[in-house]
Amino acid sequence: MKYSCFRAGACGVLLLLTLALAAPPAPADNGSLPMLSAPGEANASDASAAPGAASQPPAEAVAAVQGLLALAGDRRAAFDPQAAAPLLDYILAGPGDGLDLPAMDGASGAMSSEIMDSSLARILEYAYNPEVPAYLTHPSVIRVSGWEPGSDILTHPGLWTVLDTLDAPVVLHGREFEEITPDTFSGGYYRYTLDRALVLMRYKGRTVLLSIATQDGLSDVGKKGVVLDDGNWQYFYSGIDGLTRGGMGWMDTYMYGSWSVTAYVENPGGATTTSVVFKWLRAGWAKMNVVRPKHILAGCRRFADAFNAVLGSDRLPPAADLAAKARELGALPENELERRIVAYAAAFEKAYADHPELAGGDFGKLMRGNVYADTLDRAERVGILLLEYLKARLGALSLTEG
Q1: Per-residue confidence band for 316, with pLDDT thresholds at 50, 70 and 90
Q2: Is 84 or 23 the better-scoring residue by pLDDT?
Q3: pTM for this model (two decimals)
Q4: pLDDT digits (tens, 9 = 90+) for 195-217
Q5: pLDDT, tens digit, 9 for 90 and up, residues 25-49
Q6: Which of 59, 148, 154, 376 is least buried, going by the fewest C-beta atoms within 10 A?
Q7: What is the CATH number of domain 1-11+50-312?
Q8: Range 212-249 burial, b when 16+ CB lie within 10 A, else e
Q9: Tens digits of per-residue pLDDT, 133-150?
């Protein structure tokens, strides 16, 4: 199956796969650090990064995507359906997959696509519903997230509710914060803010959603985490600056910028949806970009595996039930939230007591007693309980009482 990544910053942050060589202790001037590469990669070009990566999408489709980026963060920018036509025509004709994009603002880019076994209405109701936290539909890549006050989506009745009466494009603007799960190679995780524009429209008889996002400013510095069980969406977060693996604990890494346009195009009959993403990412340390197109594509595939596992499950609760559970857990009194998260932390410690990366050092200290629970703020605690609830409903292993 082909895959695409659906949000802007979360997918593709396999950004330090090129750092497989152990690094020496940091010199005093980090600005002079050389860029490290895995063996055999130092002279590799982006064009060889993935199957089919030697070719690129048509220039007019790429130009249309880059023009759409102006909508994110600028309410005064007007949406022109005709300007998006080259992109949508390319998708309707059958897009490529795993393709490189021309570099933009020093960022590497890649494009991927997927035929999803889900209606566009279902995607909208779950993945673009402000009452259903994004980490429930994207649990392998998003730890916590939320829309900031003033975002149009918070007052809109729901994009899925206007599909039957859609006769003109609906454009929503907003800002989101996201904190991602640990990177599968480095263990680093990051928090950042996105400006996003959503466009729901019809084009040549098809319903289309355009999700357009740009990162606003620098991310927070990368912090040390551990991927414990990616298939069961279980991760460890230390809150300690740096990277976990490969002798890279000293590195102050950042996501410097990300830009993406994802197009969801309803297929005839409405049972499936073609999803195509164009994404650019610049990330690394000392202002050097270490991202390659293949890293973006690998992150997108990790992203889509979990997205499809959630939306494709016949055990997925109705979106209204997930929203109600989010409100219930969000309103828990502090003492009850504390009781539940301490119980989770005890189960977490028992489940991963023998994990080699959590046995000693700073991580081992966090795993003893209630220390780990004490590192979690309220939003992180609610997020854990809500995700564990979803796992239980889906029939996966859960570490909470429900």
Answers
A1: very high
A2: 84
A3: 0.86
A4: 999 999 999 999 999 999 999 99
A5: 333 322 222 222 222 333 333 333 3
A6: 59
A7: 3.30.530.20
A8: bbbbeeebeebbbbbbbebeebbbbbbeebbbbbbebb
A9: 999 999 999 999 999 999
For residues 311 and 61, what is the distance between their CA atoms, to the nearest angstrom?
Answer: 29
Domain ranges of the chain: 1-11+50-312, 317-402
C-alpha distance from residue 331 to each of 266, 270, 322, 337 (Å): 37, 37, 14, 9
Check pLDDT > 60 for residue 311.
Answer: yes
Distance of CA 85 to the CA centre of its chain: 27
CB 259 within 8 A of CB 213: yes
- The rounded distance, in Å, linking the Cα atoms of 131 and 306 is 19
From the CA atom positions of the chain, what is the Rg in Å? 21
Q: What angle do CA 276, 123, 385 make, to 5 degrees?
A: 120
Q: Is the pLDDT of residue 333 over 60?
A: yes
| Cα 65 to Cα 90: distance, rounded to the nearest angstrom | 11
Would you state the structure tokens that stand for residue 139, as one six-digit string?
């649990």
Other beta carbons less than 10 A from residue 253's beta carbon: 26
Whole-number Å distance between alpha carbons of 68 and 85: 11
**What is the C-alpha to C-alpha distance for residues 346 and 359, in angstroms, rounded to an integer?**
15
Amino acid present at 47:
A
- Rounded to whole angstroms, how far apart are CA atoms 40 and 151? 46
Helix (H) / strand (E) element for 350: namely: helix 334-351
Quick check: 48 and 301 in contact, CB under 8 A?
Answer: no
What's the rounded Cα separation, in Å, for the pair 5 and 258? 13
What are the structure tokens assigned to 368, written together?
């003893």
Residues whose CB falls within 8 Å of the CB of residue 29, separated by 6 or more in sequence, listed in order: none
pLDDT at residue 289 in the model = 86
Stated length of the chain: 402
What are the structure tokens assigned to 37, written together?
């590469």
- CA angle (121 as vertex; 308, 170 as ends), nearest 5: 125
